[in-house]
Amino acid sequence: MKQILLAKRYAKALFELALSENLSDKVNTDMELLAAVMHENRELRRVMANPLITPKRKKSLMNELFGSRFNPLSIKFVTVLVNKGREQILAEVAEQYQEIYLEHNNIALVDLTTAYQAGESLTQKISAVVKQNTNKSLRFNLHTDPSIIGGFKLRMGDYLLDDSISKVLAELQKEFDKNLYIKRF
């Protein structure tokens, strides 16, 4: 919990600085990449959390990995975190930055799960309905899960709309399990 609050503070400071320099979009792209790399690369997480590796070496490593791809502001920020001994929360800071960025730009992150690859027409229809009700633009994370058989599951924040065939079948199974039919003879 303490790390999340700390990460949120650092992310907010970075966002305000990026906003003042009109770099929030570029820094968001950098933070997306940083979060993805930190989550996917266990070895990098271990190196960054290792107290035996000097901060100078950690900064050098981050420069090698991201120096050519990142905006100078993002690299400076990562350097500040390493100097402060906060390199173990890099991924959390990147995630918190993305949340702040999405909220500021009135964008909702939506997970859409379908049995088969979702087409552009489906995402456009969902975008139109959600935008009408929430005044937010949508950014989709598309997933496929054949176990839902058909229909879709839509998750936006804490809201879940499950309009899948597997849910309907599960509800029917519950009804049959109740065995409401009572023999009268």
Helix content percent band: 55-70%
Span between termini: 63 Å
Continuous helix count: 8
CATH topology of the largest domain: Peroxidase, domain 1
CATH homologous superfamily of the largest domain, by name? Answer: N-terminal domain of the delta subunit of the F1F0-ATP synthase
* Oligomerization category of the chains in this entry: single chain
Q: What composes the largest sheet?
A: 4 strands, mixed
Taken as a percent bin, the fraction of beta residues is: 15-25%
CATH class of the largest domain: Mainly Alpha
Total beta-strand segments:
4
CATH architectural category of the largest domain: Orthogonal Bundle
Report on this model:
With 185 residues, the chain is of the alpha+beta class. It has two domains: 2-103, Peroxidase, domain 1; 107-178, Glutaredoxin, CATH 3.40.30. 61% of the residues lie in helices and 15% in strands. The chain has a four-stranded mixed sheet with strand order 2-1-3-4. α2 packs antiparallel against α6 (90-104) and α4 runs antiparallel to α5. The chain starts with a helix and ends in a 7-residue tail after the last helix.
How would you briefly describe this protein structure?
The chain is of the alpha+beta class and 185 residues long.
What characteristics describe this protein?
Peroxidase, domain 1, 185 residues, 2 domains, four-stranded mixed β-sheet
Produce the secondary structure layout.
Blueprint: H1 2-20, H2 24-40, H3 42-49, H4 55-66, H5 72-83, H6 90-104, E1 107-114, H7 120-134, E2 137-144, E3 151-156, E4 159-164, H8 165-178
Parallel strand pairs: 1-2
Antiparallel strand pairs: 1-3, 3-4
Helix pairs in contact: 1-6, 2-6, 4-5
